[in-house]
Design goal:
Strand order of the largest sheet: 1-2-13-4-9-10-11
CATH class: Mainly Beta
Mean pLDDT: 82
CATH architecture: Sandwich
Radius of gyration: 17 Å
Number of helices: 2
CATH topology: Jelly Rolls
Low-confidence stretches: 1-43, 213-218
Strand content: 35-45%
Largest sheet: 7 strands, antiparallel
Structural class: mainly beta
Helix content: 10-25%
């Protein structure tokens, strides 16, 4: 199975789609954009975007999507993640990162290292290993448009050298400093989970920059 076939199989198998909501599935399928761009200088770049998920089929309103990235690369020099949503006190969107150790295409709790997200009207990040969470306030503006972005640059061993969080207010989680659990080069799966009664219109974008000169198009 090629990596493109694997990525599509993961997406199709792991998105909970209401049986009567085929149109929503088609919209989601077309909202997932994965591309590898031409390299400049000595770097190659990859970008993945995932749009709003379909309506949940369950009473708890939960729906999730597994997103494959870095399938054959771990030489990441820059890791940039941006979560965008219409955030309210009645919805929750979180993105979990880790390595799909068993290869089943679903990021399990025991495979998860790091989570960032929005819950009850504020942002949070979590180091799963010790359960420690940090929180940041959102803007007080009436417009519910919200975003949380993490930008990491790595050192020669591909461990975090610098790390910065921003949201619509400005810099956030600044007191956290640079932590190794904010990025690991072996990560190859992200899991987007949404809950809540208010539409979140969530988008996730992952941008990676790699160390070697490679040109790959798909």
């Amino acid at each position: 199975m090629t990596k493109e076939e694997y990525a599509l199989a993961v997406l199709k198998r792991k998105v909970d789609v209401h049986p009567g909501n085929a149109d929503a599935w088609r919209r989601l399928a077309f909202s997932v954009v994965s591309c590898v761009t031409l390299s400049f200088g000595s770097y190659a770049a990859a970008s993945i975007s995932v749009g709003p998920q379909p309506e949940s089929a369950y009473s708890d309103t939960e729906v999730s999507t597994n997103v494959v990235f870095n399938l054959h690369r771990n030489d990441v020099k820059a890791f940039d993640v941006k979560m965008e949503l219409a955030g309210t006190v009645s919805n929750c969107v979180q993105v979990a990162f880790g390595c799909d150790a068993d290869g089943n295409g679903d990021l399990a709790p025991e495979e998860t290292d790091f989570v960032l997200g929005w819950r009850r009207g504020e942002y949070f990040i979590e180091n799963v290993a010790d359960g420690a969470r940090s929180f940041a306030e959102a803007s007080e503006q009436a417009d519910p448009s919200r975003f949380l972005q993490l930008s990491v640059k790595t050192d020669g061993a591909f461990k975090p050298k610098t790390a910065a969080f921003t949201n619509e207010v400005g810099a956030c989680f600044a007191d956290l400093g640079v932590q190794e659990w904010l990025f690991k080069p072996e990560w190859n799966l992200a899991k987007v989970t949404r809950r809540g009664v208010d539409p979140a219109s969530e988008w996730l974008t992952i941008n990676n920059r790699y160390s070697s000169f490679v040109i790959r198009l798909r």
